[in-house]
Predict the 3D structure of the following.
Amino acid sequence: MSEQCNHDCSSCSADCSERTAESFLKKPHEKSDIKKVIAVVSGKGGVGKSLVTGLASVIASRCEYKTAILDADVTGPSIPKMFGVGGQVAANEEGIFPAESATGIKMVSTNLILENPTDPVVWRGPVIGGVVEQFWTDVMWGDVDYMFVDMPPGTGDVPLTVFQSLPVDGIIIVTTPQDLVSMIVEKAVKMAELMNIPVLGVIENMSYIQCPDCGKKISVFGESNLEAIADKHGLDILGRLPIDPKLTALCDAGQIERFEGNWLEKVAEMLLKMLPEK
Ligand SMILES: Nc1ncnc2c1ncn2[C@@H]1O[C@H](COP(=O)(O)OP(=O)(O)OP(=O)(O)O)[C@@H](O)[C@H]1O
């Protein structure tokens, strides 16, 4: 403990015995009142984490929750495009105003900060972590029931910063049916355990394709071993998403809010249980 200790670990860099994981938590902006924070993670890139973040947010919004997305995938932000949100977010001397989608989902993303959204983000880990923290501390989010955090892929430096700085209530793990991915799911589960954050469940993306003529489901990547992994770790399976060209088209057109499909009904049930009062 330093001699001038004021017991506010967030303003002190000393690594003393008084410091707890909680003390790394950053305070949100005073104009933010965020009830629940759910992080969407994947052990590796390209499994559809952003798509699941988008769909879960649309479901929360359809359940009439005030919904927001913090796009923590700073180097590969895809949320604004999926929602057809563009331009730069506004700011004043007090802070940053989040952008809003057509149905009123609030969001902040690096792509809404950069002058040109096709500029690559070539920042080092600590800078990226700092940007995510600022999305939490400097954005005037207002009243939010559910905030979904689209995490950077993997279990590295930036996810660690996010888990330490934001009061994450639970995580959703996104996976695909390949065998390699099951190992990666275990990494995500173990990271959540280390951080003491509950795993709300797992969603398998690209689970199958459905024949448009006969309705048969074809497991393109082979049979999934999701049940075995879920059993091993006591995880709920929150849904399985097909590979659906309509979803791709909606994402590309910025129309994700129009998706139809009941693949993630269990997500709605979970949200209604976590926050019965709106
Ligand atoms: N089940 C699916 N059906 C159809 N298209 C899909 C599906 N999953 C993902 N896609 C398409 O792939 C694109 C990339 O997915 P997404 O951005 O969600 O991956 P990601 O895991 O977030 O990637 P990264 O981790 O690299 O950021 C989506 O915009 C969508 O067009």
